[in-house]
């Protein structure tokens, strides 16, 4: 299991969370990668990054910067509706691994969290996990921290919020999944 080091906010497009100075101290002091500007929101904890919708340029730059695995939480039908390119082909043509774990608040399950945990454990570099707004990515992170890192639910939900978790439906889904044996 990789360590939980604390969320570092690289670019924040969620004004309801408050300004960056209201956030807990960052766990890592490092330069912000240039590619984060190609996404609506990017936060990270160590070598796992959480993001909203990718762009071709954003994916290319992230992979050039060491992202070796891209995990999309978008169901295929949603991806076709919101992206103007085939993400799997784009990622794999650049030599990175593409994994889809389709998640909605209604479908979110312990198996989805386990799939993320396995994908992250098997990666050999930085991991970029995204959905449309980072809400599901933040929810996945919170559920992972509860189920696989034994982080208390309140702390894990806080980390999830800083990773993009922003809807009551997804918070409820995280709590449901966290209580699944």
Write a compact overview of the structure shown:
This protein is of the alpha/beta class and 181 residues long.
Assign the CATH topology.
Protein-Tyrosine Phosphatase, Chain A
Using the alpha-carbon principal axes, give the shape: globular
How many individual domains? 1
Q: From the 3D coordinates, which CATH architecture would you assign?
A: Alpha-Beta Complex
- Count of DSSP-assigned helices: 7
How do the strands line up in the largest sheet? 1-2-3-6-4-5
- What is the N-to-C succession of helices and strands? EEEHEHHEHEHHH
CATH superfamily: Protein tyrosine phosphatase superfamily
Mean pLDDT: 83
**Structural class by secondary-structure content:** alpha/beta
Number of strands: 6
Please report which band the strand proportion falls in: under 5%, 5-15%, 15-25%, 25-35%, 35-45% or over 45%: 5-15%
Q: Report the helical percentage.
A: 25-40%
Main pleated-sheet profile: 6 strands, mixed
CATH class: Alpha Beta
Radius of gyration: 15 Å
Distance between the first and last residues' Cα: 19 Å
| Poorly predicted ranges | 7-31
Written description of the protein model:
The protein has seven helices and six strands. The protein is of the alpha/beta class and 181 residues long. It has a single domain (8-178), classed as Alpha-Beta Complex (Protein-Tyrosine Phosphatase, Chain A), CATH 3.90.190.10. A hairpin with a 2-residue loop joins strand 2 (42-45) and strand 3 (48-51).
């Amino acid at each position: 299991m990789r360590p939980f080091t604390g969320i570092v906010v690289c670019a924040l497009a969620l004004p309801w969370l408050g300004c960056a100075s209201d956030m807990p101290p960052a766990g890592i002091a490092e330069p912000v990668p240039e590619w984060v500007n190609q996404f609506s929101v990017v936060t990270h904890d160590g070598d796992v990054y959480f993001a909203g919708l990718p762009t071709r340029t954003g994916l290319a730059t992230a992979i050039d910067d060491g992202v070796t695995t891209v995990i999309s939480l978008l169901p295929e039908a949603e991806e076709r509706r919101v992206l103007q390119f085939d993400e799997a082909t784009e990622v794999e043509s650049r030599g990175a691994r593409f994994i889809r774990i389709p998640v909605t608040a209604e479908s979110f399950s312990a198996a989805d969290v386990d799939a993320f945990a396995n994908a992250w454990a098997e990666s050999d570099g930085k991991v970029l996990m995204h959905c449309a707004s980072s809400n599901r990515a933040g929810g996945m992170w919170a559920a992972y921290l509860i189920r696989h890192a034994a982080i208390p639910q309140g702390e894990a939900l806080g980390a999830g919020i800083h990773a993009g978790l922003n809807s009551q439906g997804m918070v409820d889904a995280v709590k449901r999944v966290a209580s699944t044996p």
